[in-house]
Specification:
259 residues; alpha/beta; UDP N-Acetylglucosamine Acyltransferase, domain 1; 2 domains; 6-stranded mixed beta sheet; 5-stranded parallel beta sheet; 8 helices; 43% helix
């Protein structure tokens, strides 16, 4: 029991920069208190003492604002940050190392008793504030659920789900877009990454501009090579003085346009 408690405190100190000491975490973190009470309730639930388990869960909800059904399965090193309004359903499973923020619901969409109605979170999943994960599916290891997302279908390992209803972002494509945006002096994450039409248009422009810029640079490089081989004219006469032969962007100018 005490080893699990020390493990929980250590993971909070590691993930929350606002945590200053073990004593502060032990006395002032409702997420930790909710997990400690849930373990007692879950122990009773597994032995058929359902009323006692539900009463302990009710006390945990009263003192912490976090409602965890005693039938839910929670792994090690789980961190419920802030925690107010978190609801975890009966058949939910939370893997090791997960982080859950305030207002999250791990809920069900079926009324069938005894069925798997609530989601399963893999290892090291991050669930953003006020998001809803509804249904008996699996969120893969290392996945991220964006704040206020409504997830109703499985999320692949390592992917990110955002929006309502949630859509899956591929990590490789998103990272490539961000790299291209940073190169142009503009961060795509400065605007909403949901279904905002301005955000969608900006992402399309970034992708398009990045591809065109690379192609133009290659064309000018080819022209320079042809010009240097020409015997009739010197190379300088074949290439305009204002031609851009390398991949460069005026970051300041783009920033002014975005603002």
């Amino acid at each position: 029991m005490f080893s699990r408690l020390r493990e929980d405190i250590a993971c909070i100190l590691e993930r929350d920069p606002a945590a200053r000491s073990t004593w502060e975490v032990l006395t002032c973190y409702p997420g930790l208190h909710a997990l400690v009470l849930h373990r007692r309730a879950h122990w009773c639930w597994q032995r058929g003492w359902h009323w006692v388990a539900r009463f302990i869960s009710h006390l945990g909800r009263f003192f912490t604002g976090i409602e965890i059904h005693p039938g839910a399965t929670i792994g090690r090193r789980v961190f419920i940050d802030h925690g107010m309004g978190v609801v975890v359903g009966e058949t939910a499973e939370i893997g090791d190392g997960c982080t859950i923020y305030q207002g999250v619901t791990l809920g069900g969409t079926s009324l069938a008793k005894g069925a798997k109605r609530h989601p399963t979170l893999g290892r090291n999943v991050i669930v953003g504030a006020n998001s809803q994960v509804l249904g008996g599916f699996t969120v893969g290891d290392g996945a991220r659920i964006g704040s206020s997302a409504v997830v109703v279908k499985p999320v692949p390992p390592g992917a990110t789900a955002v929006g309502n209803p949630a859509r899956i972002l591929q990590a490789e494509v998103d990272a490539a877009r961000e790299a291209a945006a940073a190169k142009m002096g503009f961060s795509a994450y400065g605007v909403t990454q949901g279904d905002d039409p301005v955000s969608q248009a900006m992402k399309g422009l970034i992708d398009n501009a990045s591809g065109h810029e690379h192609q133009i640079a290659l064309l000018w490089q080819a022209i320079e090579k042809l010009s240097s081989r020409s015997r009739e004219l010197p190379a300088e006469a074949c290439v305009p003085q204002d031609a851009h032969t390398t991949e460069t962007f005026d970051a300041e100018r783009l920033n002014r346009l975005v603002k």
